[in-house]
Structures are given as structure tokens and as C-alpha cells.
Amino acid sequence: MQLNMFKSKIHRATVTHAELHYEGSIAIDGNLLDAAGIREYEQIHAWDIDNGERFVTYALRAEEGSGIISVNGSAARSVQVGDLIIIAAFAQLSEAELEKFQPTCVYVDENNRISHTNRSIPKQMAAA
């Protein structure tokens, strides 16, 4: 059996461009792609924290160190420059692969520079 599992994410990236008349995709700073293990042209999901919009597209590599997060094509209608988004990728894994697998979480600052990474998501606790 293959399971569709969360592979990696870039958490709370700031949208730097929204280009409606550009071929669809999200151009992402190459340093962020490498850190998250997301390949160019890989299918990604994007979730806008500010407005709740969700869409699926693919990753394009932007210049390393540029901080670019450019939402392009029709998805540009789903965001505003300055919005915070989560970019996530998923992978098909077998039961055996799951034994050793851990996702990669990349956290960025307001300039889309890596602040830290993590191999797990903290367990959510009940509100006090």
C-alpha cells in the first residue's frame, strides 16, 4: 500500500509578487526549495494564512538568496503581495518507508530567509 504523506513545507513565507499574466506556478527562492527538498516542477499546495485561499500548482526555482515567492497565473488572484502562505509538498510512501521517514519543515523570517528547520511538527496541546 502507498500512502500520500506530508513531505515538506515552507512555513509562513511572504508573497513578494503576484503575476497574473505569467505562466502558472510559484517561483520560490532556490535556497528554500533546497532546504525543503522540493524540486523544480514538483506539485505543491499553497495555503494563504491571511485569506484562507488554497490552491495547487507547481514549484519554479527563483534565484538563490532572492527571497522571491512569486505566485503566478490564475493563482495570483488568490493572494496579495505581503500575504503569508504555507507551501507544502506530499510524497507517496510505502509502509516500510514510513518507518524511517520524517518530514522537513522550513521556517522563514519576514524576508523569506530561513530562520530554522525542524523534522517534526510540535504536538498540538489543548487550550488551557
Key attributes of the depicted protein:
128 residues; mainly beta; nine-stranded mixed sheet; 2 helices; globular
Q: What is the general shape?
A: globular
Strand order of the largest sheet: 2-6-3-5-4-7-1-8-9
Number of continuous helical runs: 2
What distance separates the N and C termini? 39 Å
Radius of gyration computed on alpha carbons = 15 Å
Mean pLDDT: 95
Specify the structural class. Answer: mainly beta
- Written as H for each helix and E for each strand, in order along the chain, the element string is EEEHEEEEHEE
The amount of helix comes to under 10%
The major beta sheet can be summarized as:
9 strands, mixed
- Low-confidence stretches are none
Q: What does the model show?
A:
The chain is mainly β. Helices cover 9% and strands 48% of the residues. It has 2 helices and 9 strands. The chain has helices spanning 30-36, 95-98, and strands spanning 2-14, 17-19, 25-29, 43-48, 54-62, 69-72, 84-94, 104-108, 114-118. It has a 9-stranded mixed beta sheet. A hairpin with a 5-residue loop joins strand 4 and strand 5 (54-62). The longest helix is centred in the N-terminal third of the chain and has 7 residues, at 30-36. The mean pLDDT is 95.
